[in-house]
């Protein structure tokens, strides 16, 4: 029992820490006019979790100390497990779909694009871009921090939730020419993401309603991918001046567990509509 409880605590800390880490990642606007040497791009295959998260950021248990936190974590993990299993027959692979859509978008924008596999020791952006394919002018690295459905409280609707961290790194100098956090659906108001709204038809009054409509639930997540990608494509077309970051200046995309206590400030709930949860 102690091991199980510890696992649930770790789960809650990891999810909250991701939010803190994302809030700490510096933005870098792209300047295409200043980066005319970037013509060939290698997209590093996107990293994503194998789970489709179902999270309630206003879960009643979160207000009652450790025991309440364990109850909340157990409930959210149970919903995540059940929802992931429900969608498994659909073979939804958000990382693969994101990578393919991004490649198509950037080709349409005039770049020569190839997709390459990379080894990732953890589900995060690469810490080093050395020893990669030497042919492209820049690498596009990306992580889908989460995919699933989030709600703000026990009386609010579940909404699609997808969050991408994307960066462009110049091969020769290792400068970060572009870096952005893009959020689809459920809005994480305390962070620095570009927020893209989801259609209201993809809102579900409670978890049972979400589970009862897997086709619509899948559509709600899947429809976010081209919207995220189009935001990246639009960003990489702009000619506004922007000084590139050095890789050494970059904040880690995922925070450590020690930062979890401040994550509540990041995950600020949205207004609640009175719905049974």
What topology emerges from the helices and strands here?
Blueprint: H1 2-23, E1 40-44, E2 47-48, E3 53-56, H2 65-87, H3 94-108, E4 112-116, E5 138-151, E6 159-170, E7 175-185, E8 194-196, H4 207-212, H5 214-222, H6 224-235, E9 245-246
Parallel strand pairs: 1-4, 1-5, 2-5, 3-5, 7-8
Antiparallel strand pairs: 5-6, 6-7, 7-9
Helix pairs in contact: 1-2, 3-6
Can you walk through the features of this model?
- By secondary structure, the protein is of the alpha/beta class.
- The chain has a domain of 192 residues: Double Stranded RNA Binding Domain (2-Layer Sandwich), CATH 3.30.160.
- It is 31% helix and 21% strand.
- Strands 1, 2, 3, 4, 5, 6, 7, 8 and 9 form a nine-stranded mixed beta sheet that branches.
- Helix 1 crosses helix 2.
- It is elongated, with a radius of gyration of 19 Å.
- The N terminus and C terminus are likely disordered.
Rounded to an integer, what's the Rg over CA atoms?
19 Å
- Main beta sheet: 9 strands, mixed
Look at the helices and sheets and give the structural class: alpha/beta
The percentage of residues in β strands lies in 15-25%
Number of DSSP helical runs? 6
Give the beta-strand count: 9
Low-confidence stretches: 1-14, 244-277
Give the fraction of residues assigned to helices.
25-40%
Mean pLDDT rating: 80
Give the name of the CATH architecture of the domain at 27-56 and 92-253. Answer: 2-Layer Sandwich
CATH class of the domain at 27-56 and 92-253: Alpha Beta
State the separation between the terminal residues, measured CA to CA.
Answer: 27 Å
What's the SSE pattern?
A: HEEEHHEEEEEHHHE
The global form is: elongated
Looking at CATH, which topology of the domain at 27-56 and 92-253 would you report?
A: Double Stranded RNA Binding Domain
């Amino acid at each position: 029992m102690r091991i199980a409880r510890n696992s649930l605590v770790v789960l809650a800390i990891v999810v909250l820490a991701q939010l803190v880490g994302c809030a700490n990642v510096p933005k870098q606007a792209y300047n295409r006019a200043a980066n005319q040497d970037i013509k060939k791009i290698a997209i590093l295959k996107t990293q994503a979790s194998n789970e489709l998260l179902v999270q309630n950021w206003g879960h009643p248990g979160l207000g009652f100390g450790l025991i309440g936190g364990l109850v909340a974590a157990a409930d959210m993990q149970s919903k995540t497990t059940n929802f992931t299993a429900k969608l498994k027959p659909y073979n939804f692979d958000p990382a693969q779909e994101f990578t393919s859509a991004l490649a198509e978008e950037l080709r349409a924008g005039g770049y020569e694009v190839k997709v390459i596999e990379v080894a990732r020791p953890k589900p995060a952006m690469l810490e080093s871009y050395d020893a990669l394919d030497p042919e492209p002018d820049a690498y596009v690295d990306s992580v889908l921090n989460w995919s699933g459905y989030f709600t703000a409280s026990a009386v609010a609707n579940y909404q699609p939730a997808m969050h991408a961290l994307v960066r462009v790194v110049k091969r020769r100098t290792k400068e970060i020419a572009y870096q952005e956090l893009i959020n689809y659906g459920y809005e994480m108001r305390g962070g620095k993401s570009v927020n893209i709204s989801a259609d209201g038809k993809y809102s579900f009054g409670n978890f049972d309603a979400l589970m009862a409509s897997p086709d619509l639930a899948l559509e709600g997540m899947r429809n976010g991918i081209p919207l995220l990608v189009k935001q990246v494509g639009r960003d990489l077309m702009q000619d506004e001046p922007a000084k590139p970051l050095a890789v050494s200046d970059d904040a880690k995309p995922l925070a450590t567990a020690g930062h979890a206590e401040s994550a509540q400030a990041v995950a600020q709930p949205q207004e609640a509509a009175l719905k049974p949860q």
